[in-house]
Predict the structure.
Amino acid sequence: MELLYEGKAKKVYATDIKNVLRIEYKNSATAFNGVKKDVIEGKGILNNLFSSYFFDLLRKEGIESHFLQKISDTEQLVTQVTIIPLEVIVRNVAAGTLAKRIGVEEGHIMKFPVIELCYKRDDLGDPMLNDDHIIALDIATFDELKELKQKALRINEVLIAYFKNFNLDLIDFKIEFGKTADGEILLADEVSPDTCRLWDATTKQKFDKDVFRRDIAPLRETYQALADKLGIS
Ligand SMILES: Nc1ncnc2c1ncn2[C@@H]1O[C@H](COP(=O)(O)OP(=O)(O)O)[C@@H](O)[C@H]1O
Ligand SMILES: [Mg+2]
């Protein structure tokens, strides 16, 4: 079937079912807006595994998403949406660009989960927007923005509680939402260690893409260790 879009981490294909797409998770790893890249055998399998698992987990907690079914090691079927071009970021602990931007130590605990909204535009380096920009530029309406934030905070609660069972702290994550043909807003894209930061609560060991970004440890082994820890296979 027709390849509709190839991104940095996934390929998106049409299917013969109306409003259903096939997503293939690739073995490529990228960081810093594509400046650092590598091919990592087995990464697609692991991220398809994680993403399918987390979409299932979130659905059990009442959070609907585009996820329909895992159909192979590297592929899943999803509901087609029109992606709202925002990266919705939730930060429980300062790390990465936030720590750098405001000059706090990585690991500084935020008083409450802080939401950041970035314009999904690789050509502009995904600039941060405020609510006024988003509404004034028709990227989302006031009500949609409210819904995105509510959903993001609920997802944060569910994931924090889940990871706590494994002595892991959810530092931050990035999600994307899309609108279905009926106008419903669904969590879309992926939920994986590519799109979050996870630290061992005791040792602060990283179980996310920072091991690749910063050349700390091999990515595949790190993701496999996370899958083993969570009992996902
Ligand atoms: N259900 C969906 N319907 C349509 N597009 C989607 C859906 N889920 C994810 N996408 C889009 O698929 C593209 C491919 O993903 P990815 O490789 O992660 O891209 P990127 O390089 O933009 O991060 C992204 O633009 C993402 O927003
Ligand atoms: Mg992506």
Remarks:
- Residues 7-9 surround magnesium ion (ligand 2) (CB under 6 Å).
- The two ends are 28 Å apart (CA to CA).
